[in-house]
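Now for a sample.
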Amino acid sequence: MALRTRLRPILPAICAALAATPAVASVYAVVQSSPDEVTVLDPAGIETLPGGDWRRASSVAVKRNLVTGGPPQPGYVRTVNDYDCVGRRIRWRSFFVYSEFGALILHKDNADLIWQGADSDAGLRTVCGDTHGEASVSASSLPQLVIGLMRTWQDAAPAPPLQPAAVPAPPARKKARAVKP
């Protein structure tokens, strides 16, 4: 229920950005949402690992700002996680940080692979099938969804105030001297 109330302020912007989505589209589960970040997961991309109790999925967090402080630097983070649906645990395998233009900024693989309890994690609930009727969005592709979300933030951002232009005064003309004959 909290997800729906957090998603409510940004949902009209998401819908408007994706209104021109072609008929062939994929549905992405919204696993987390705030005014400055939306995390989606493609349910069609969930893999069942050998043994059947573990699953692997990747999620994409679209962020208005990748860093704290300083000027906004929009981008997105793709995280690959393993989920233990029986033990209600999660471990991250790798993550990739991209600029708003898709340039790779950072990639890190998890050397520890330690499981952590995560029963309240929205991604765990989505991957393990414990959600019913949660928020979702559709787009023709994940990149189109990422671009659409970033565009809604750009369109919503107020333009900077107009600054008066300082026009330099023209140089003073020198008076012509009379030439003596």
Summary: Residues 142-156 form the longest helix (15 residues).
